[in-house]
Amino acid sequence: MSQWPLLSLATFLPLVGAAFVLLTRGDNAEAVARNTRYVALWTSFVVLVVVLLIWAAFDTTTAEFQFVERAPWIPAFGIEFYLGVDGISLFLILLTAFLVPVCILCSWDSIRTRVREYMIAFLVMESFIIGVFCALDFVLFYLFFEAMLIPMFLIIGIWGGPRRIYSAFKFFLYTLVGSVLLLVAVLTMYFEAGTTSIPDLMNWGFDEDLQRWLWLAMFASFAVKVPMWPFHTWLPDAHVEAPTAGSVILAGILLKMGAYGFLRFSLPMLPEASVYFSPLVYSLSIVAIIYTSLVALMQEDMKKLIAYSSVAHMGFVTIGLFTMNQQGIEGGLFQMLSHGVVSAALFLVVGVVYDRMHSRLIATYGGLVHRMPRYALVFMVFMLASVGLPGTSGFIGEFLVLVGAFQANTWVAFLATTGIVLGAAYMLWLYRRVVFGDLVKAELKSISDCNRREMLFFVPLVAAVLVMGIWPESLLDAMHVSVANLVEQTAAANEAVSFAMREGR
Amino acid sequence: MAAFLAHDLLAILPALWLAVAGMTLLMAGVFISRNASHIVFWGAVASLAVAGLLAVMSPVGEQPFDGLLAIDAFGRFMTVLVVTGAVLALIMARGFMRRESMERFELPVLVVLATLGMYLMVQANDLMTLYVGLEMQSLALYVCAAFQQDKLRSTEAGLKYFVLGAVASGMLLYGCSLVYGFSGTTSFQGIVATLAVGSESTGILVGAVFIAAGLAFKISAVPFHMWTPDVYEGAPTPVTAFFSAAPKVAAMALLVRVLIDPFAALVDHWQQIIFLLAVGSMALGALGAIGQRNIKRLMAYSSIGHAGFALVGLAAGSEAGVHGVAVYLAIYLVMGLGTWGCILAMRRDGAMVEGIDDLAGLSRSQPALALALAVFMFSMAGIPPLAGFFGKFYVFLAAIDAGLYTLTVIGVLMSVVGAFYYIRIVKLMYFDDPADAFDRPVGRDLVPVIAVTAIVTVGFFLFSDPLLDSAGHAAATLVAGVSPSGQ
After folding, report:
1. Which of A246, B347, B384, B417 sits CB 3.0–4.6 Å from B439 for a disulfide?
2. What is the CA radius of gyration of chain B?
3. What pTM value is reported for the model?
């Protein structure tokens, strides 16, 4: 099994699919669009299968990188084409491969113009995203990390809503500013350590003063991506204006890239600086949790509400990661996956009614349960998962994060918990206003329930949410060793810094 | 003595070939009555290509004519770039000249003569050769800029370029004379030797500043950039394409050589100058372009910005820096020419249009052209995996290596500001409603140029080794040639 270059296959198969789509020609525009959709769907399915194979063959007993592929790329500078996965990146790749077919299915009918370009953009983006999570060379990582902006920019700008141009520019420039500072950090690390190999950099041990600068440069990039308060303002705009599938990818995966960056680079490579700056991260995360939850409470636009809730949920992730203990990091990682599925699903839920009514305003709806019982059920599952009800995936993530946070800092845990209450408030209220009540609005009288295609992507998502909630060990099992390794790497720094702080007092 | 002379002449065979070809083509143009422009055009393309081949094959490491020229790997690398730029620009000029009924044989001849000047520039090893080469190139270019002599804008561009260029040449010449006065020699090695003794370095420093100012004019670095937007806008579009490619590369190569070779000992001084030029150019290039509605003016600001980024590599003053500049110039040449190819395809009812709004909705009417231009724009903005990213990557790599963190951070931030106007063009083509379509077909002479440059821009990250190696070799010989052979 391992002699097959499975990671390259998963990374570059979408590009092959995109090339196929590019070559699809014909006089009948309708037929071309249909073929395009099928090519894209099948490509993404094959990628999912490849990733499942990787999961099946994954060895959960080692923290080493697996399925490693290594080839010289720019020998003059020792930059390599270097891929590999561990328990941290594996599930993010799985999440990507899982969500892309869902995105393609949900755009099946809603995207009618320039279908070919749309599918090409999506497949190219899938390739870049998987590349980001597989890359074990910092330059290669950066390449994928930034290249991904191009397809996303086009998706928001071409197929987005009325303010799509403003949003696309804001998204592009905001994230680019962060990324270029990351580049400066990468170059600096290259000259310090003489390598861009990520495993080597993890064990390098940078000078403490330098670490702080590098940490800030990386923070500029990852905090915008996560996004952490106050760098989150691009997110509501981009989410609201992007087409449904674009929001799904944004919320489901792109936000995780920032958190993945913290996990893969900031913590292991710059442990002392991470400990030093963890109060900053805690503070920003808590502000994000409480403030954006309050903002979400007051939203009239469903997509905006979910966008703000994403900022709040990602606040839990960053708290979890920076507790630097086993429960916290696992919780953060689990919360990433859970939020990846749940927020993606919530955007799809909004997309379903948007496709029918072309309105995202909460006020447009009400009493949908009378006409759409299946929809109401699906919506309820995701709503409860977002709230963090036990038995759903959201509970596990938030619980582990809070356990971790409690060990690190009681106040952080206390304040973060208030976010759960607020989260329950805005989600339940949203659900009540949209689904319950009497069906009084005339234009809703003829609205139809989820069709078969829509159920086709909702059922796996519901299953994922429940499986993750009831049997979390299915995922945690593969994370334990990698996370333990990471905790060990940062533990020494944690000790040293807290010792220094005690001495200082 | 005769054998000695023959050896020298052999070493500069490409220059001899270009000179003879230029004169022959001129004669052919004058005396052939039928189809003269056609014959001269292809003759010029062929002789430029041959000159490029000769330059690649001729032995390096020679210093013919008692060191007036230095035929080294750096010069050869730059010669290849210059010749490539000239050939591609000429090919793109063909259709334009025919349509604008200005198909005269002089333009190809002028390009050949300008290339000869550039050949001398990039291999100059003496202040005399430097000046002669630069003037040879500049005079040919002044005429090129005013080539559409019945158009007011073109003549204005030519005149402006000439007057301001003459001022810059004057500064350069004054600098040369100061250096000569204080060092008693015009030879680069002689200057190195004088500086090594440490005598009279203030006078030489002032001379060096004047020389740098004169060359900064040629690469349109801030604050010597004022001519660029007007000349770029006024000159006939293919001539502008040529301006932005080959002469820029040649002048930048000359600046690198002058500062790294004879004035290497003054690195602490000129580093500050280059630092300021780089910051100014990057900032003005990025900010100035935002308000532009004319694509040729926009490209002028873009070229100012690119000069700034290339200067970041030079500011490092190291081998890695020269390497970065060389790679940057090569990539800039390719994507710049590709962009100009797309601009030349902007025709409506047989006439050129130059407003960026004319590009609106291009992705609907001409998807392939829009895709190519989008590739060039993202590449110029420095988004990986396109070639432009690697250009910036290597210059910033060198700058970080040299400890220029401030410059690097300013540079990357300016690249984000610059990205705004590049992606605005993408936005026009992809997000906006279509304007009237451009004329089709794009043209047999444009399509291959656009296609090849676009493929190189996209595929560069896969096959970057040959370019990196030869640029590395070029940088190594230039930097290594300084200290040991300083005699």
Report:
1. B347
2. 21
3. 0.92
